[in-house]
């Protein structure tokens, strides 16, 4: 990424997006799905129904930018947001782009006599 990570906010669209949409269609989804200023330079991430394609839309000072990625194998994970749309951090976006899924396992304490 080419941005100072502390200032950029990343929003993941929680529903499946039609990857045939381009700048205007994704802009409309971002305006409807998020209660933030879409022209403020935030990143909006859209994933298709099969979770094999991703588009990232953002506005720099001169116009819209659109990044696309299609996976040859595997799927993108929407586990950062449960239910609807929501905000993720830049690190989660980087991990998602690389195909790394963070799983946290919490071990429960078991009393030695009860094992």
Q: Rounded to an integer, what's the Rg over CA atoms?
A: 17 Å
The helix content, as a percent range, equals: 10-25%
Adjacency order of strands in the biggest sheet: 4-3-2-1-5
- Class by alpha and beta content: alpha+beta
Overall 3D geometry?
elongated
What is the total tally of β strands? 5
Largest sheet: 5 strands, mixed
Number of domains: 1
Portion in strands: 15-25%
Mean pLDDT across every amino acid position: 83
Straight-line distance between termini: 48 Å
Number of helices: 2
Poorly predicted regions are none
H/E element string? EHEEEEH
Concise summary:
With 115 residues, this protein is of the alpha+beta class. Helix content is 17%, strand content 23%. InterPro entries: Transposase_IS66_Orf2.
Textual characterization of the structure:
The longest helix is centred in the N-terminal third of the chain and has 11 residues, at 23-33. This protein has one domain. The protein has helices at residues 23-33, 90-98, and strands at 10-12, 43-47, 53-60, 63-70, 86-88. 17% of the residues lie in helices and 23% in strands. The mean pLDDT is 83. Strands 4-3-2-1-5 form a five-stranded mixed β-sheet. The relative contact order is 0.21. It is of the alpha+beta class. InterPro entries: Transposase_IS66_Orf2. It comes from Rhodoferax potami.
Based on the model shown, name its key terms.
115 residues, alpha+beta, five-stranded mixed beta sheet, 2 helices, 23% strand, IS66 family insertion sequence element accessory protein TnpB, Transposase_IS66_Orf2
């Amino acid at each position: 990424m080419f941005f100072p990570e502390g200032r950029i906010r990343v929003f993941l669209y929680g529903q499946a997006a039609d990857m045939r949409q381009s700048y205007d269609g994704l802009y409309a989804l971002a305006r409807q799905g998020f209660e933030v200023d879409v022209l403020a330079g935030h990143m909006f991430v859209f994933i298709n129904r099969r979770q094999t394609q991703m588009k990232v839309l953002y506005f720099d000072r001169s116009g819209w930018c659109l990044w696309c990625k299609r996976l040859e194998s595997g799927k993108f994970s929407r586990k950062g947001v449960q239910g609807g749309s929501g905000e993720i951090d830049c690190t989660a976006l980087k991990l998602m782009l690389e195909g790394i899924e963070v799983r946290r396992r919490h071990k429960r304490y078991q009393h030695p006599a009860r094992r």
